[in-house]
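I hope you will forgive my troubling you with a question about protein structure. The matter concerns a single protein, recorded as an amino acid sequence and a row of backbone structure tokens. Please examine both parts with care and let me know of anything in them that strikes you as inconsistent. Thank you for your consideration; the sequence and its tokens are set out here:
***
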Amino acid sequence: MIYETVLTEIRGRVGIVTLNRPQAMNALDHRLLNELMDALNAFDQNDAVGAMVITGGEKIFAAGADIKEMAEKTPQQMMNGDPLAVFDKLRALGKPVIAAVSGWALGGGCELALSCDMIVASESARFGLPEVTIGVIPGAGGTQRLPRAVGKALAMEMIINDRRLTAQEALQHGLVNRVVPVSDYLNEALELAEDIASRAPLAVRAAKRMINASYESLLADGLAEERRAFYRLFETEDRKEGMTAFVEKRKPEWKGK
């Protein structure tokens, strides 16, 4: 597919989507979000792809939602159009998604990174949720995902008082997985994604689903579902191959079955 607002490519077993609205600082308008999700869905259904990376530019990941597009919207129009539903679809993807963030990740851009499974940040990355400064709140998961990542106190300060986090602060508080020089951040994310893509695909999907479920369910419910998912993997060829390879001291050959 050829898109207007995102670029796509496959390197090895990693699908890459690059946000490409530089004239608007990669603001997340309706078209970009739809094209982003279309590209990710295509990678999710492609057996040659084992993991995905979302990235932007070196100086800006995404400046947030496109305020010009929504400034005149009524509550009913927003609810009927439900433009933020795309973030639920992102979370529902089966394969892991890594955000490679450099420069500013603000508002919806920060929420996009939070919706991914892991974040690799460059030293120039800056994270913030400034919606309160324009009279709204984060609406794409920021008020729910950020406290789970950094704790209630810091999330309160970021959301209510527009505190921005540097890359090192984000690492210190558990928001990102690692921080590397600007020249290395995308390659670092791709290497992480390639490592993940080399693992047993059905087990990776199950693990991702269970970890995400732990944020959205009672512990007892999550433990029960985790156990069921664990047992179901014993039906798979990959489980047998993985354990056999371990016993035989060789590298497993995954089939995704």
User: Anything to note?
Assistant: The domain at 201-248 is CATH 1.10.12.10 (Lyase 2-enoyl-coa Hydratase; Chain  A, domain 2). The first strand starts at residue 6 and ends at 11. The CA atoms of residues 207 and 226 lie 8 Å apart.
